[in-house]
Amino acid sequence: MIGKLNHVAIVVPDLEAATALYRDTLGATVSAPLALPGHGVTTVFVELPNTKIELLHPLGEDSPIRRFLESNRAGGIHHLCYEVEDILAARDRLHAAGARVLGDGEPKTGAHGKPVLFLHPKDFCGTLIELEQA
Ligand code: CO
Fold first, then answer.
1. Is 83 left (phi over 0), alpha (psi -120 to 50) or beta?
2. Ligand 1 centre and the CA of 25: distance in Å?
3. How far apart are the CA of 24 and the centre of ligand 1, in A?
4. How far is the CA of 98 from the centre of ligand 1 (A)?
5. Which of 11, 55, 94, 125 qualifies as a FRET site for 21, CA 20 to 30 Å off?
6. Over the stretch 13-53, which tens digit does the pLDDT of each residue have?
7. What is d(CA 19, CA 44) in angstroms, rounded to the nearest whole number?
8. How far is the CA of 7 from the centre of ligand 1 (A)?
């Protein structure tokens, strides 16, 4: 059911420093920062030949990643995003298997303008999983 790894998201305490690290030290192609107030994050995309890394920094007081950063002060891997062809079919299959879909179970529009869902980390080896309809 899952296809390509769309991105790995890393929460960082200093977005400028993290961008410089990926651009200058690791020699990757990085985007300009993109503020996504609806998601409570500012993001920088790191383009790799086979996938992307998303550097995430909290935006606003109610940012969903603020608490993560408080307990991971140096930053850390936040979630993995896998592509699926049909997000509603994927959700129904996961529900039938007893896996927990976060929120109300309805896909939201993600950072790339495509429908996404998040799956409970306790059901997936301690890893928060995002599914994005490719
Ligand atoms: Co993501």
1. beta
2. 24
3. 23
4. 23
5. 125
6. 999 999 999 999 999 999 999 999 988 999 999 999 999 99
7. 7
8. 7
CA of 1 to the centre of ligand 1 (A): 18
* CATH architecture classification, 5-133: Roll (3.10)
Query: Looking at the annotation, which residues are catalytic?
Result: 130
CA separation (Å) from 46 to 7, 31, 32, 77?
9, 7, 10, 14
Task: Spell out the domain ranges in the chain.
Answer: 5-133
Enumerate the β-bridge partners of residue 43. 34, 56
Q: What length does the chain have?
A: 134
**Spatial separation of the C-alpha atoms in residues 134 and 110, rounded to whole Å:** 11
**What are the φ and ψ backbone dihedral angles of 131, each rounded to 5 degrees?**
-110, 135
- Write down the pLDDT at residue 66: 95
pLDDT (0 to 100) of residue 52: 97
* Antiparallel, parallel or unpaired: β 76-84 and 5-11: antiparallel
Q: What is the pLDDT of residues 55-75, one digit of tens each?
A: 999 999 999 999 999 999 999
CA distance 2 to 83: 6
